[in-house]
Amino acid sequence: MNRYLWPLVAFALLAIVLGVGIKNSKTKGVVASPLIGKAAPDFVLPDLRDPDRPFDSRSMRGKWYVLNVWGTWCVECRAEHAALMAAKASGKLPIVGLNWKDDSAGALGWLAQLGDPYVAVPVDADGRVAIDYGVYGAPETFVIDKQGVIRYKQIGPVTTDALQGKILPLIRELEQG
Amino acid sequence: MRAPAAALLAILVALGGVVGAREAVPTAQDPVAARRSVELARKLRCLVCQNQSIAESNADLAVDLRRQIDEQIAAGRTDAEIVGFMTDRYGDFVLYQPPLKATTVLLWAGPGLLLLLAVLVLRRALRQQAETPAPVPLTGDERARATRLLREEAAAGRDAAR
Fold first, then answer.
1. What pTM, to 2 d.p., does this model score?
2. Shortest CA distance from A125: residue in chain B
3. Residues 6..35 of B with a Cβ closer than 8 Å to A: which?
4. What's the CA gap between B29 and B27, in Å, rounded?
5. Which DSSP category does A118 fall into?
6. C-alpha separations of A165 from A83, A159, B84 in Å
7. Which B positions 63-82 lie with beta carbon below 8 A of chain A?
8. Residue to test with chain B: of A131, A142, A155, most B Cβ within 10 A
9. Count of CB contacts below 8 A, A vs B?
10. Which among B57, B102, B94 is positioned nearest to A34, based on CA atoms?
11. Is the reported ipTM for this assembly greater than 0.90?
12. Element (H, E) at A70
């Protein structure tokens, strides 16, 4: 009996370890942000639609908003666009669209064609602001509170589910707390 | 080739050398800084292609981060400060070699522990093998009996097959 017990135990342990790995593989590659709970880095960047009027992130103090990192080169950004337009229509949450390492003419065309859900479109041409936010891909979306603290980061497209199911409830919860 | 054509060719080649060819532009960094830059880049993970360091990766982000490293070296930051800059923004996962912490102790010690376990199991198995008694050779009587039994069984088998 002993002869068969140990290999069985070893197999069971291996199965558990591999099972946990498979279960976690969906979130593998998603890097948790160390900036949750920290102050969102402030920046001043030219606005895509009006380069002479720079956008200062500090102007968003006093209200909840969402910083959406996007670019015309990003396929998933197109996928989330409808959800962003719906969010804008609902009027519940202003969206600042950080245009990351993009071609400005192309970006303007995209907004003209697909609709503009943003209250401001700061242009991060060299990617420095994105690095400060720990951005490593697009789309990524940060939920920032009235004091300018990052409360949540959505990696990947913002779906209506994410908005209704996670982001808005989180805001409501933190507002009450 | 005729002389005039050869002469013309020679002139064109010489001019081409002057106009087109350039020495590779040396990097603005001195060699010490350049080496530090590469060493640091090797220690940091490219988060786009996550099994490459930013020294190896061609992703845009890797290019941006290498530039960040160069700028910070030029600004006089220490290696620890530069690594801290990265982990502040991207977390521990950006370190290509995971740090030794309570959460990673199993990762670091795991292979060694498994090897130790395997060695112990092997030792026990070998010892058991050494301890099993060698088969005692049959006595003459026992061998005669065994032969008779085997013959009977073979005969029975042949009868059954018919």
1. 0.71
2. B64
3. none
4. 5
5. -
6. 13, 10, 34
7. 64-65, 68
8. A131
9. 39
10. B94
11. no
12. strand A65-70
B51-60 burial: b if 16+ Cβ within 10 Å, else e: ebbbbebebe
Torsion of CA B100, B49, B86, A96, to 10 degrees: -140
Within 128-147 of A, beta carbons closer than 8 Å to B belong to 128, 131-134, 136-137
pLDDT by position in tens, chain B (length 162): 678 888 888 887 777 655 656 655 555 568 888 999 999 999 999 998 888 899 999 999 999 999 999 999 999 999 999 999 999 999 988 998 877 777 778 888 888 999 999 999 899 989 988 888 778 888 888 889 999 999 988 888 888 877
**Cα Rg, chain A, nearest whole Å:** 21
- For residue A66 the two structure tokens come to 């969402």
Are A118 and A70 contacting, i.e. CB atoms less than 8 angstroms apart? Answer: no
